[in-house]
Amino acid sequence: MAQPLHITESTYQSEVLESNIPVVIDFWATWCGPCKMIAPIIDEMATEFEGKAKICKVDVDNNQGIAVQLGIRSIPTVMIFKGGKVVDTIVGAVPKAQIVGRLNEHL
Fold first, then answer.
1. Is the confidence at residue 1, as pLDDT, over 90?
2. What residues does each domain of the chain span?
3. CB 86 within 8 A of CB 79
4. Residue 22, helix vs strand vs coil
5. Which of 35, 41, 58, 79 is catalytic?
């Protein structure tokens, strides 16, 4: 079973911006209740989209530079990247079908 890739400030450029497949990033923090609600969805997506998209997580407390650079103001925020650019943003805890549907538009 695939696991989400944990992105840090040192891996962001190579894993996200230079990725040749779409990248989904869940911006979260350990203290965030709604983040815990979508965590199982992100975990499932890592397995379901293996090889088609990178499913990643960024802990905003430990990687504030990425969050500031992307203007993350509330969490959970899920961003979809394609070709190194943000192509979609979903803010808040939403149903799995909504995240998957938005990702499928970019595959």
1. no
2. 5-104
3. yes
4. coil
5. 35
